[in-house]
Input
Amino acid sequence: MAKKGRTKGEKPEALISALQAANEDLRSKLTDIQIELHQEKCKVSKLERDKVQEVKRVREQEQHRHTAMLTEQRAKWHEEKQKEQQALRENLTRQHEQELARHAKIKDQENQRLKAALNAIRDGSGEKVRTALTLEAREEARRFFDQERVKLLQEIVELKNTKKQTDEALSNMIQADKMKAGDLRVEHQQHQEEISKIKWDCERDVRRLVDEIKSKNRTIFSLEKELESTAGYLQKLQLQKDALDEQLFLVKEAECGLGSPKREIPGRAGDGAEHCGSPVNYRDSTGF
Output
């Protein structure tokens, strides 16, 4: 009967050991899942930071590109304006030189005319002098009118050419501005599409990580439930083992109380002393 009680005591101990090992395994799995959850949270935070930095970097690059293009356009306009001013300055200088040469020529002709008139006055009569002076004045007025007319016609032609060149330059600049504006709109659209794509990818990764975190949270919750049920079952087995130990101890006491000293078999006294020991010694020997 003692052998039967010992066998009953060993089975709960083996079951408790297996349950404790399973409990430790569940605890280690729970720890690993918590570590993975922390790592996933760190990855989510890193992805959010990377997304913010990427959007900021794209905006800075776009702003820098626009600033560089604007600076280049301003430099080009300034250079073209300087070229136009230089050409206008050279044209005005050339016209001024031509005007000075014309005035010098007119003065020379006037001096020659006055000298001729003075010589005629000295050599001829007054009537001839008046007639010559009148004809010369008319001729001079006609020449002056022709010169002024030619000058005005030249200025009109030059102004027309200048206006035509200015219109062509303005038309070219407007066309170039339209093309650059179109290129800027296309680049802006491409940048917006890239930003939207990056944002969508980041949101997809975040949703995936959030789903994984929720799944792992559910796994942790189920493991905690299983751990709680296992702990309850272990406690129940421990109570059953204590009850079995108590029953076994009572059986041993009963056997010791019913046995007669006259009927003791030699060589079995030691066994009876072991079985009739105190409850404290018996519990120390079983470990509970």
